[in-house]
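Task: sequence design from structure.
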């Protein structure tokens, strides 16, 4: 899990719900995303979890928009790019999966169950999960198995038993989404116990749980995710200046625990990415 004393830091820099009104530094355009990728890579992030927005700033699963963002990022950074297939509330499964089918990224998220999202919800039934996993496997895209509730971890075991996922298994525990599982030490422990043998995982604490989740990840041998998708405040009432500021703090915390940030090449080798 530690990659010989290293820890993997992911930055989820935009998301689908955060707005410019809430966080003026939110990167939306391909050019802004490229600058963010370069800054976060320099700060110590190895993976960029990528959502894109349309010309009006609205979340979109447009293949064209993803392609523009990826091309802009690749001009300035070697960071591993992980596309979202979670999309935004209301996106169809076909819309969410299309960027993976057409762009074949190194990594992409794969939601492992239907989840309450505040007053709304995102549907991921088992047939949808199978369809996504099948396309991922066909294109050798490494899945981050995102789990918002404990049952999602167990649901992922079906995909493994059916041969739709290849090792190494990488999970993302998304904790503290309103009306889903909150971040607690007990909940994180339960998620970890439910993992298949040998799996690694990234802990994602939403909102005020972001910093405690980073400590929890380190204490249990997991990896860290930070960024404006998860939290816009650096401290109570104080907006973060940039995504890189979150990465820099995660690196400081990791250093205090005797860990160094993994590089993109470390991740590519460890997770057996296509490169």
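Answer:
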């Amino acid at each position: 899990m530690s990659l010989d004393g290293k820890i993997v830091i992911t930055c989820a820099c935009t998301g689908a719900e955060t707005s410019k009104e809430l966080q003026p530094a939110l990167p939306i355009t391909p050019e802004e995303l490229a600058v963010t990728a370069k800054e976060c890579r320099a700060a110590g992030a190895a993976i960029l979890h990528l959502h894109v927005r349309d010309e009006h700033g609205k979340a979109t699963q447009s293949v064209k928009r993803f392609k523009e963002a990826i091309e802009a990022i690749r001009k300035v950074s070697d960071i591993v790019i992980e596309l979202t297939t979670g999309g935004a509330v209301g996106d169809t499964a076909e819309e969410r999966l299309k960027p993976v089918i057409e762009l074949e990224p190194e990594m992409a998220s794969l939601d492992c169950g239907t989840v309450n999202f505040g007053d709304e919800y995102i549907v991921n039934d088992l047939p949808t999960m199978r369809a996504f996993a099948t396309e991922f496997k066909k294109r050798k895209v490494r899945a981050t198995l995102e789990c918002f509730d404990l049952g999602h971890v167990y649901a992922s075991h079906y995909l493994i038993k059916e041969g739709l996922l290849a090792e190494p298994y990488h999970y993302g525990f998304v904790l503290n989404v309103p009306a889903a599982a909150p971040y607690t030490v007990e909940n994180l422990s339960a998620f970890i116990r439910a993992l298949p043998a040998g799996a690694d995982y990234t802990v994602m604490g939403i909102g005020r749980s972001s910093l405690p989740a980073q400590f929890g990840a380190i204490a249990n041998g997991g990896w860290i995710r930070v960024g404006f998708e998860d939290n816009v405040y650096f401290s109570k009432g104080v907006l973060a200046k940039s995504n890189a500021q979150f990465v820099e703090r995660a690196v400081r915390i990791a250093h205090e625990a005797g860990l160094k940030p993994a590089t993109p090449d470390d991740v590519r080798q460890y997770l057996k990415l296509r490169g």
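The longest strand covers residues 142-147.
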